Description:
Number of domains: 1
CATH architecture: 3-Layer(aba) Sandwich
Helix content: 25-40%
Structural class: alpha/beta
Amino acid sequence: MKSLHLCAALLSASVALTVSAQQIPPYIQQPEGSDGVYAIWPGTPPGSGHVTWHEQSTNGGGATTPNRSVRNVALPTITLFKPAPGTANGTAVIIAPGGAFMFLMVDYEGYTMARWLAQQGVTAFVLRYRVGHTPDNDADMPAFVGQLLKTLGHPGAADAGPPHGTAAMEEARLWGEEDGRQAIRYVRQHAADFGVDPHRIGIVGFSAGGGVTMGAVMKHDAESRPDFAAPIYAAYRTATPVPADAPPLFIALADDDDLVPPIAGARLYEAWHAAGKSAELHIFDKGGHGFGMNQQNLPSDAWIGLFKTWLGSQGLLSPASQSPHQ
């Protein structure tokens, strides 16, 4: 949610790929260094037959690191980042960027993490899930984002629930949760094609993407259940009742988060702990909302190293043949 200076022109690079029987439209971009873009639904996604808009991408101005925003996503896709030859360990992670269910911050909450995961031997997929409709004109976006931030409000120290949004955000949240489940199904169904273990598929999400992550954690079938999950400063509805087959969780957020109540992470950990499920919680003194993969010289910078240690403790960084299924 930080550095939302959405005033630049559309990126010019685009790609059209054939995935199964579906053609990826040229307005859906393939980022540098990625290994393919795949539509996760075989046709029109359920519940969005009335959608007439299509995906747009803009650069965030003033940032020293890549800061692209993707909005008006109508065709959900996953973008693949493969480990170097001979280094894959069989683990797969789906990454859901944040953006209040109205756009997706695809760089520091998506592609940057995917590249990092690939360096750890993990096959990574950045999910561009459906979001609510925003202005088609880039010049109208700063005012839209400003009003959106006012709508979200700012939680008090005692607040434990997720931020409340508009009707459009609520519709998009349901889309996003369904797309999160479908992304897991898709990767699991094509595990052999991607070279991953179908029992080592996890999902990580930031902010609204953390809501997508928890949507899959809390409600799933056998094909859409994540084997592990990491909600990062996640905007989710509820942590109860904890599913009987609840996966291990890695939870991280900052105590000075002004959009998602920090106590929400503690409540999530508490629910998992009370149910006898595996969870690890980190609440950093400083970091704010939306730190993602950005290094800010703040305590929250440590989260990604801690996540790597957690993945290792779960046996997810060793070759699948050397690690029991989670």
